[in-house]
């Protein structure tokens, strides 16, 4: 339940509101969505989001955050948002529209603003899983007064007039003054007294609905104690703790009809309210007309293994929206607004996911709805759930984990359109899902979006992951030169002395080529890659040079990867999950693709770049010929 401006206000007035404390040897409950976003927003080094996310730097900082907690004996308990509640649907739709408008004009020169990349949440959870981190409220009334996801600030305009806020020079200053005034005002009253004072500024006909809003929002922030169980607390722990406060609901202790109305009417003032867009109203109306299950009713029909894994954040939150509401809100990315939404390419995968999920609730249901971008607006599209793949009926959700792993793997293979003959099984296990996604992405792309330079960029970007693992992570050319220039000169000197002639063979398997990559070759090739991590100065100063077609293609790839990983998780991970941060860096891929586009023969250019690194060149050509573009089947 976000309060606009509150985090910034607390940060700017930390000396007044916060007390220094050396936290150690304790549990710490963390709002995972909030902290994950704050870490991304706080780092300028990788947060230029125009290229779709530099996840390696982000993963490093998330790792440092949790390492610092663990060093102090702190056991983090991270809570992740679940499915969308009914009362938040309007907010979701409004924010989706706002994101479309922001994404349509976003460019690399807007480095002061952030646009969270689509796989940020997956990377955050990857780090938590790696560190075995187990995966509400003090100021509810302040949240309601200022306006949150559920309550418009305009509801309390008479109350704010009573506060007599000073005029501010900017919207940000006005927001800070407003927060400060609310805190100061609240400090003078008990909760009941504060509510009574607020209601005196509300006309009597509207008081009951406003009080319902206040009571509902304050009570909403009290979590059930049972949420502690999936976080690892034993059942008897709850019995030993006083959890009555957690489950307590707020009810106003007073008579709203006897309160004297103290509203002020200014001459010539017109009622001002936030107007919802007609398209948004129609969209919400259409969605709410669809019959949906209560969350408790849905959970009672789901297999126990699914509920437990969902509670442990092993699945994305939208799974519950599909189950309860038969609805999926497609994420907004920075892309070419003149093309079809980047999400269109993933509808086949989403259809399979829905086909598996709906079987647990109502197998007779055939369709779900997707909130998706169409040009510069959002629309509702129907999507039929998949029931058969290659004439084979999908198993029900209740039986899904009872079938062999190979059968579940086959569901994923058929969805992606891959098979053993594609060279997939020659790959290192933790590469398979990523390359399966590459093949699906290449095949499903529209001709207007597809360009070979993007495919070569993805492939070369994968090879740089190996260089990283061999020599360490370098993103600054200057830093790399200072540390490795002498070593590189020694390698070149020895090769000249030995009359070294680089050569490579294109036979053998991918794993053989992978295992034979040598440290010296990685060092010699690294400078080419490192130079592509930096933002082109011309691009920063001239947004017109920003190629949205390249960004759109990689937006399609990212959303493909997200849905493939979600399906893989639902199937019990027949393939090891992709660690996104080790493979994907948006700035690197954009710069590589831009570079490759300037060369008529891209392979010839890559051969020249990697000429002195034959072990890398060998892997590149084997991957290209056996996995990415294998010869046609007989």
Automatic annotation (TrEMBL):
It comes from the Eukaryota. Gene3D superfamilies: 5'-nuclease. InterPro entries: Asteroid, PIN-like_dom_sf. Belongs to the asteroid family. This is Protein asteroid-like. It comes from Ceratina calcarata.
């Amino acid at each position: 339940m976000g309060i606009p401006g509150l985090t910034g206000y607390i940060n700017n007035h930390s000396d007044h509101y916060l007390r220094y404390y050396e936290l150690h040897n304790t549990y710490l409950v963390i709002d995972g969505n909030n902290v994950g976003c704050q870490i991304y927003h706080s780092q300028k080094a990788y947060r230029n989001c125009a290229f779709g996310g530099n996840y390696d730097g982000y993963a490093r900082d998330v790792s440092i955050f949790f390492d610092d907690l663990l060093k102090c004996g702190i056991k983090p308990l991270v809570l992740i948002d679940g499915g969308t509640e009914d009362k938040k649907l309007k907010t979701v739709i409004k924010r989706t529209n706002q994101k479309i408008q922001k994404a349509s004009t976003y460019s690399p020169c807007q480095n002061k603003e952030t646009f969270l990349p689509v796989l940020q949440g997956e990377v955050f959870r990857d780090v938590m899983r790696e560190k075995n981190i187990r995966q509400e409220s003090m100021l509810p009334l302040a949240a309601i007064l200022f306006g949150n996801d559920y309550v418009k600030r305009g509801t309390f305009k008479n109350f704010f007039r009573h506060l007599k806020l000073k005029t501010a020079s900017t919207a940000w200053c006005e927001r800070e003054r407003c927060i400060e005034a609310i805190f100061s005002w609240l400090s003078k009253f008990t909760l009941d007294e504060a509510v009574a004072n607020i209601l005196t500024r509300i006309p009597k006909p509207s008081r009951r609905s406003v009080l319902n809003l206040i009571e509902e929002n304050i009570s909403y922030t009290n979590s059930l104690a049972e949420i502690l169980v999936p976080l690892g607390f034993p059942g008897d722990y709850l019995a030993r703790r006083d959890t009555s406060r957690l489950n307590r609901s707020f009810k106003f202790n007073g008579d709203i009809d006897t309160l004297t109305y103290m509203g002020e009417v200014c001459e010539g003032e017109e009622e001002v309210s936030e107007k919802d867009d007609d398209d948004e109203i129609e969209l919400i109306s259409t969605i709410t007309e669809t019959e949906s299950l209560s969350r408790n009713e849905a959970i009672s029909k789901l297999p126990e293994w699914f509920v437990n894994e969902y509670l442990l954040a092993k699945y994305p939150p939208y799974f519950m929206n599909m189950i309860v509401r038969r609805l999926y809100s497609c994420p907004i990315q920075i892309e070419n607004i003149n093309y079809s939404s980047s999400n269109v390419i993933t509808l086949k995968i989403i259809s399979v996911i829905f086909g598996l999920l709906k079987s647990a609730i109502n197998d007779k249901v055939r369709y779900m709805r997707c909130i998706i971008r169409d040009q510069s607006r959002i629309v509702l599209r129907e999507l039929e759930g998949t029931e058969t793949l290659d004439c084979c009926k999908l198993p029900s959700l209740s039986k899904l984990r009872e079938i062999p792993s190979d059968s579940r793997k086959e569901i994923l293979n058929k969805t992606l359109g891959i098979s053993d003959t594609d060279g997939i099984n020659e790959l290192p296990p933790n590469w398979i899902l990523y390359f399966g996604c590459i093949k699906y992405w290449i095949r499903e792309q529209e001709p207007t979006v597809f360009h070979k330079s993007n495919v070569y960029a993805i492939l070369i970007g994968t090879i740089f992951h190996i260089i990283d693992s061999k020599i360490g992570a370098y993103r600054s050319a200057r830093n790399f030169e200072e540390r490795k220039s002498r070593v590189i000169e020694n390698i070149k000197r020895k090769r000249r002395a030995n009359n070294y002639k680089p050569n490579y063979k294109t036979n053998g398997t991918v794993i053989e080529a992978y295992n034979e990559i040598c440290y010296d070759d990685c060092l010699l090739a690294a400078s080419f890659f490192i130079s592509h991590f930096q933002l082109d100065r011309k691009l920063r100063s001239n947004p017109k040079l920003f190629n949205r077609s390249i960004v759109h293609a990689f937006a399609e790839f990212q959303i493909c990867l997200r849905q493939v990983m979600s399906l893989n998780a639902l199937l019990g991970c027949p393939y090891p999950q992709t660690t996104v941060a080790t493979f994907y860096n948006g700035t690197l891929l954009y710069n590589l693709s831009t570079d490759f586009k300037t060369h008529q023969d891209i392979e010839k250019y890559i051969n020249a770049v990697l000429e002195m690194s034959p072990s890398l060149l060998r892997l590149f050509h084997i991957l290209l010929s056996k996995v990415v573009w294998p010869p046609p089947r007989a």
